[in-house]
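Sample A.
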Amino acid sequence: MEDRIDVEKEYGKLKYKLPNFKELDSEFEVSFIKEKEFLLRGIRRRVTEKIILSCRIIESLIYPTQSNIITAIESKELSEEQKKKMDYLYKKFMIFERESLRLDIDPSDKGDVDYINDVFNKWIKFKKDMIKIVEFMKDSWIKEEKSDKNNYFG
């Protein structure tokens, strides 16, 4: 069985200006990376995973499908103002996601470093917005549950 690498130790050996490892790991779980080779690329991909997850969450709300009960319930009470804010955030995330895709096609350590720093520096604000979005989603189920209780057996 192959031993896991000490990502923090390997990260410390990198000769680039990067975010604090513990903070980066706390947000993007980069310590789960298993390969020492192409460490920067692996970190960028871990960061991108959270960006993609955030895109899928927003997509489900601003582009709901009638065939999916989850999106129908969660997007039911979404205001136009909320949609505009989510659309703005979605576009920001898609720019990051597409930049990561470009870097997969045309790898560059400098590109990976710039990407990691850019996303990390903007993530704290975006994270606050994502928390509000997920709370909105959760609240839609609470409202749905209350509505069901009022209608249950008359």
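Sample B, a different protein:
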Amino acid sequence: MAAESLIVPCSNCFRLNRVIATRLAQAGRCGQCKSALLPGQPVALDDATFNTFVGSSDLPVIVDFWAAWCGPCKMMAPQFEAAAKAAGSRALFAKVDTDAAQSVAAQYGIRSIPTLIAFRRGSEIARQSGAMSQSQILQWLATSVR
């Protein structure tokens, strides 16, 4: 019986990597650039990299839509980073600056920030607006993103 494999995008070079699901937590490395596939921190995405990273991942991708001028976004940033580290191999985390990536923000109808959207293989599976703590983000991940 063949082991199930997952497609996981590299957060550094955005190349797609096939990883055996049972070995995912062992912190595999990208076949091209050798960066960790599960970096434990959010990756910055823009209009050019969003679809490759979010659209191809078999792991859920939690995206924080934010802006530099947003007070609640600044307050939530360290909480989001801590949640990314704590989540381990359950999900990938990414950030999209809505001022710099206006096409992506418009595509997903971002009207208030911060907004978290969970994606699986490019499809939106959950959405939550408003600043959250690390524990709230992890709870949302556990209950909304299965």
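Observation for Sample B: The chain has a mean pLDDT of 92.
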